[in-house]
Amino acid sequence: MDELLIVTTGGTIDKIYFDDKSDYQVGDPQIGQILKELGVAFRFTVIPIVRKDSLHLTGADRELVRATIAAQPAKHVLITHGTDTMVDTARALSGIEDKTIVLTGALNPARFRGSDAEFNIGCAVGAVQSLPPGVYIAMNGRIWNPNKVRKNVAANRFEEA
């Protein structure tokens, strides 16, 4: 892998807690800092597309993600995304040729202790380097085909559809 292209869309992985509002807001992309702290041995570029909870992503947002990825020369792409509509976006990206695209996110914000963010990012980085071209989801220690996975909201995990 010459260089990893990272596209960020927001989601829980980038959420921060605002005490004065008593709610969560999507903050700056966390993945670049996480990879730097982990001392990864590859070059990467982060392109923030949108900062939204995935429930608020639109068809136009997904098309912007698709067009951005298609226009980049990188063959390896990691997307951080909210988990609620990650499968929808993965399906919207199908058909992009000659690129390995892996979507990942977190069920708890990256800034929170006990977050699954670093684990999911690590799985996604390994997957994007080793899988053939196509679109995949890396969550809960597994690599999923977007056409055969769903988020089980009650159990707060991804599972076979």
> Would you report the number of β strands?
10
The fraction of residues assigned to DSSP E strands is 25-35%
Averaging pLDDT over every residue, what do you get? 90
- The CATH architecture term is 3-Layer(aba) Sandwich
Number of helices: 4
The CATH homologous superfamily is termed L-asparaginase, N-terminal domain
Structural class given helices, strands, pairing?
A: alpha/beta
Number of domains: 1
Largest sheet strand order: 4-1-5-6-7-8
> Unreliable stretches, pLDDT < 50, 5 or more residues?
none
Largest sheet: 6 strands, mixed
CATH topology category name:
Rossmann fold
What is the percent of helical residues? 25-40%
The string of secondary-structure elements, in order, is EEEHEHEHEHEEEE
Radius of gyration: 14 Å
Q: Which geometry do the CA atoms define?
A: globular
- The termini sit apart by 31 Å
Task: Give an account of the 3D structure.
The protein has a six-stranded mixed sheet, with helices on both faces. It has helices at residues 31-38, 59-71, 86-92, 117-130, and strands at residues 3-10, 15-18, 23-26, 43-52, 76-80, 100-104, 134-139, 142-144, 149-152, 157-160. The longest helix is centred in the last third of the chain and has 14 residues, at 117-130. It has four helices and ten strands; from the N terminus they run βββαβαβαβαββββ. Strand 7 and strand 8 (142-144) form a beta hairpin. With 161 residues, the chain is of the alpha/beta class.
